[in-house]
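User: Sequence for Oxidoreductase below. Tokens please.
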Amino acid sequence: MVKAIQIGLGHWGFSWSKEVIPKVPSVEMVGYVDTSPEATGRVQEELGIDPKLCFNSLEDASHRTDATLAICTLRTEAHYPVVKRCLELGYNVLVEKPFTTTIAQGKELVALAKAQGKVLMVSQNYRHQPAPIAAAELIAEGKFGALNMVSIDFRRHGPSQGYRYWDMPDPLLADMSIHHFDLMRYVLGDEPVRLSCRTWNPPGSPFRYDPSGVAMIEFSRGTIVSYRASWMNSGPVTPWAGEWVMDGAEGQIAWSSRDHFRDKAGPDVLTLLPLDGKAEKVRLDEVKYPDRRGTLNTIATVLDTGAVPRGFSSGEDNLGSLALVQGTILSASRGGDWVDIEEIMG
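Assistant: Structure tokens for Oxidoreductase:
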């Protein structure tokens, strides 16, 4: 059993408090932290949290609880200073994505976690779903031979689906595409080497910054990923993880994941399309702790056992996904010029 505090009880943080944390029995909550009395009052009133477990500062919580894990569910710009202070205070940390806004900040936190002997994990929750887990295993086994091309489509229409962050910088690449970028690295078991990206803001869009984009990403083993994504697409809605077609020398692996729309959840789907045979729908294994529950259960298990599983999204590993975010933003600012990942990583 891992004792934890949660820092950040706003809209998304409250979702963690209500929908995620109570469903992971290996975690015992001993504190909730937010500077807003309204936020701490909400968890008390709606979730029945003991007021004695609520604090208005991290420092106060650190002195009055015996937690070893800090669950950081704050706005992105607060990740770096809060995670840094948590590590300095001796906490292991699970932090929402993206875990920093710059590569330099990310490297600093990774180095600090190592110096402190603590675990720093980023909640890349899309990894904890049946289809990407199965796809990653198939690719690792060499199913259908060497990969040639991967096509990914993500389509949502923000104005008609309750999206509300109209003024968020890089609403596609930084807030949404990081999930897809992280899945690319996880499923392919490979790292990107260079990329090209263009973004735009369609006429009539309520977004202040570009909600649509296309990117071409080259990975070290030669696989090319073609990525198309938009918050302003009026076509058929895709699952949150997108629609994937992975083309190999002897066939294709097609899959989709996190098919949630208007409070309806559909199953993950994965289909094998051999070059000379019939399409075969693969029966996927159930994931006991899916999505965000998966990230929380994983870090609790690592802290309990010391064993780090395959695909663990540590801060160090997640630098690669953050680099894809920074690289696509940079390429888009240069009109789609190719950007080497080495330039981003420094």
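The chain has two domains: 2-118, 127-288+323-345.
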